[in-house]
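Why show two proteins at once? Because comparison is the fastest way to build intuition. When a single record is shown, students tend to memorize it. When two are placed side by side, the eye starts asking what differs. So, the first record is below.
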Amino acid sequence: MLNRILTGIILAVLLLVTLLFSHPFLIGTLFTLIFIYSYYEWLNISCKNIKKIYSALFLMLIMMYMLLEFSSTFLIRNLTYFSLSLWLVIILTLLFNFNYLKNILTNNPAISGFLLIIISWYMTVSIGSTSMTIQQDDSYLIFSSSELFPLSNYYLFIIILVSLSDISGYVVGKLLGKRKLCKSISPNKTYEGFIASLIFPTLIFYCYFILFKSYPLLITDILFMLLCCIYCTIGDLLVSTFKRCFNVKDTGNLLPGHGGILDRLDSYLPVIAIIQFWIFI
């Protein structure tokens, strides 16, 4: 647990410094490298042919370039709807047809990982581009922005919300967890930890917005925060299912106490589309 805490603190400090003091282009480049490396970890688990791995990574780079080149609010908005629909299907298969999900991940790992990761990446680097107040199609793409604000605030909100959900779920699950949530997928997850991962982040942000920002949160805002926290667990469970399909514990060993980059990114994969829809559409 000590390694996990220390690694988490170091990552948090590095991200905070990057988001507050770096140029938006550098932030976008960092996010891009994180997503590409996550796809590499995904492929490294499911494919042993190094040529196929590098070919898939090269294809992802080409697709990333094309998405940036032809970016538009229409494209971002429709990919947001597609991502929300895709994750809804994932939830339903997790609940009612788990074997079908395992078959998809086992038989089509490169394609499924490609879709999940590149769409989430595009949502991340284009945060806010679906806002009705945006006049130019690429004005909120982080690579074309010259101002950190308000982009840095949006990213900080997402990172803190997901981190609070993960931390509260992990700590409460470790200390008080008794009833297993999904023993066959992730034996360490408990109902107690899951409930904590919903309550604590929502309560903390509710107090922050009401007490410090004097911002009147609506019921819909609270529901969307809860939905984001729920989807953090869904993203985690999907990647855990993928790892189970190929009998691995972690997606990598780059982060001591955490595993690989994908082990940290999994909670973000479904959340970014919810943020896009909630705040900007």
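Second record. Ask yourself what differs from the first in the token line.
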Amino acid sequence: MSAADFPKRDITFIVPYAPGGGSDIQARRLQDGLQKALGVNLRIVYKTGGDGAVGFLELHSSKPDGYTIANVVVPNIVVTSRGENVGYKAADFSYIGMTEQAVGALCVPKDSKFKTLKDLVAYAKENPGKLTIAGTGSPGHANFAEIVHALGIKATYVPVSGGVGKAVPMLQGGHVDAAVFASSHAAKHAGTIKALGIAGSDPSPALSDVPTFKSLGYKGFEMATTWGVMAPPGTPADIVKILNDALKKAVSDSKVKDAQIKNGLTPMSQTPEQAKEFVANAAASVDRTEKLLKALEK
């Protein structure tokens, strides 16, 4: 397949999560820049379910001609690929590049009785298992295991299907005591939810007043969600390069960068090789977390 005349028609961009979530926002943020760089329309479609697995499988089964691409969320792509009979492996895909990253945050409703992380920990220790913490699917469960281990507490995990777009309303409505997701969502919904702790070595750019777990003495838990773009397995390298060049132009736009930073995201720009290596490193990290999760369940 030659890339000499690529692209010559519209490109489909699969969003594997519900509208309004981080992946949808990322796709919309990149859409204009990608269209300008490629000279064709970018048609966004939603293929939701299975914590992203439905959309990832849809891409995996698509023709590797560059005309179908999708969000990739790390570590979600790694975690979901390890399910039984899921139909794909994280290493299968042709990665175009990662575009943005947000450290994790443990959040509560704005009117929560927990004003600080210390308050939450004290309650959880006095009431083992009563504290409810929501997360999105399998990656959320892994993050939950990391959090309770770092805080030295016992709590109850509440799984949420459909991505953060479903988890945020649950937290806002007080249906759970707390939730863990990317700090960018805490920044976006600062009027209704509050972050108690940041799971990174440095504070979030948009939540500079929120302490890190480490600064509060809770070590061993660092979490980040990273968004990028990928193509089906076997997509020719020259087509991937064209898509990567277009992606780099899109993310270099000052409006895109300003929007990312405003929403607590760290802008990223990668080569396809760097993106592939990034996913491989994430897989190694997931191995460690899965061992922790098994130990927690014993």
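One difference worth noting in the second protein: The beta strands are 11-15, 42-46, 68-74, 94-109, 132-136, 156-160, 178-182, 193-198, 224-231, 266-267.
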